[in-house]
Amino acid sequence: MKRIALEALVAAGALVIATPSAVFAVDYTLSVNTALATSDPLYKGLESFVSGVAEASGGRLEVKLFPNSQLGPDEDVLEQARAGAPVAVIVDGGRLATYVNEFGIMGAPYLADGYDGVRRVSVSPLFEEWVTKLHDSAQLQVLSFNWWQGERHLWTNKEVKTPADLAGVRMRTPGAPVWTETVTAMGAVPTPMPFADVYSALQQNVIDAAEAQLPAGQGAKLFEVTKYLTKTGHINLITGMVTSGSWFDSLPADLQKVLRDEALKAGDVGSYGTRDALAKIEDELKASGMTVNQVDTQVFKDATAVVYEKLGYGELRDKVQQIAAGN
Length: 327
What we know:
Radius of gyration: 20 Å
CATH superfamily of the largest domain: Bacterial extracellular solute-binding protein, family 7
CATH class of the largest domain: Alpha Beta
Low-confidence stretches: 1-5, 10-26
Order of helices and strands: HEHEHEHHHEEHEHEHEHHEHHH
Number of strands: 9
Mean pLDDT: 92
């Protein structure tokens, strides 16, 4: 089924290549996959992307949204994109590090606070060098990397105050090394699985806990299967919209610019909307019965500092944090 779906998507993209003389009369379609629910404030940014691209392209380029991972796990959609399918996915740097190692630092623990700092990194000349390297080596094109989803916290059924409290706790996390090493350093046992499976895995005691940002955790109704939200803020989750490099290259230059410009604008819409929604979401989680705890994060910062050196990001960390600070 995956092969059939992929062939259909590639064929759809190939229509524009087969008729270059009629390029302005052809509808280009980009399908965007995200693990997020439609209730997530970042999804408003995706909706803004749909309308922005339609207007800026004069209707020549259509964007379709597929929430709740309807096109499959992020890794599968990335492979579809690499094969030339007109698909895009909202994905973290840890997964992109499989192709270009530097991207992994964007998901490293306690890299920066809030949105504005990591946004500076995502639009910097240094980051654009990684974008070019990803395109050339993996045939993946970053449209923008300013889709901020908030800081990630711990969702557990036991109270957590220090890394020692996480000993033996099976915690869901994405499978990229920067994530699994962070969870390990925090004291838990990393258990990679698709985010769509987390609710049932908690319900069936396949895992004991999860780590996720507030909008995603609320959207997945993790408050129904966990009791404690511990605000560690261990990962400041910045993600990107990534599509097929070969499909992107097949587009007219003006539509390439439309995609990148509108993705950046829409990322800001979603990111600032996320920032403005966090306090309300926290209040709603408390009202649902969750205990929300603010802990001393320094012990977690100290515990996870080894992740940078272990993954070879020590020198790069200093450079990135200078950019994030505006220096």
